[in-house]
């Protein structure tokens, strides 16, 4: 099964063509991280972005979701990742991920019209050295409460904007914080 790259997913006994370019997967992950979307909105985007040109019928929605997640996980089980702290963000880290992937792939991947998501993810999985892996290593140590060495502390201090993952807030949360600050400033 893993000898060939999937180009379609079987849902309800029918094969549905999928959009396999890595950009589609990354767009879906960006939607999943959007705090302004609820779960139903995220699932709708995943289904509409991935299944193309035909979308499986509503009565097969759960199977279509399960197959889409299987595809996005590259056929691997990531059940153990549920409780792990977040140490990367496809969108925030894109400027440092792409050079690392380019190094592994031996080319500028963004110039290619089509690269299968599983191929792209395979290259991503082989990143072992460079700025991105250094940043993820620091994030992992911090998430586990492990001490940073002197160089890592200095690197963190000098590159906080690259290392610290931004906390994504919904528009409602941002508005609530703004109103609280405004109310607080009137009291003080």
Characterize the structure shown:
The protein is mainly alpha-helical. The chain contains nine helices and two strands. Helix 1 runs antiparallel to helix 2 (39-50). The mean pLDDT is 90.
Feature tags:
188 residues; mainly alpha; two-stranded antiparallel ribbon; 53% helix; globular
List the helices and strands and how they pair.
Layout: E1 8-11, E2 14-17, H1 22-32, H2 39-50, H3 61-72, H4 94-105, H5 117-125, H6 131-143, H7 150-158, H8 160-163, H9 171-187
Antiparallel strand pairs: 1-2
In the sheet with the most strands, the strands line up as 1-2
Q: Any idea what the radius of gyration is? A: 20 Å
Segments where pLDDT lies below 50 for 5+ residues?
Answer: none
Q: How would you describe the oligomerization state of the chains in this entry?
A: single chain
Q: What is the rounded distance between the termini?
A: 65 Å
- SS content category: mainly alpha
How many DSSP-defined strands? 2
Measured as a percent range, the helix fraction is 40-55%
- Sum up the overall morphology in one term: globular
Number of helices: 9
Characterize the biggest β-sheet: 2 strands, antiparallel
Mean pLDDT: 90
What order do the SSEs take from the amino end to the carboxyl end, as H and E? EEHHHHHHHHH
What percent of residues are in strands? under 5%
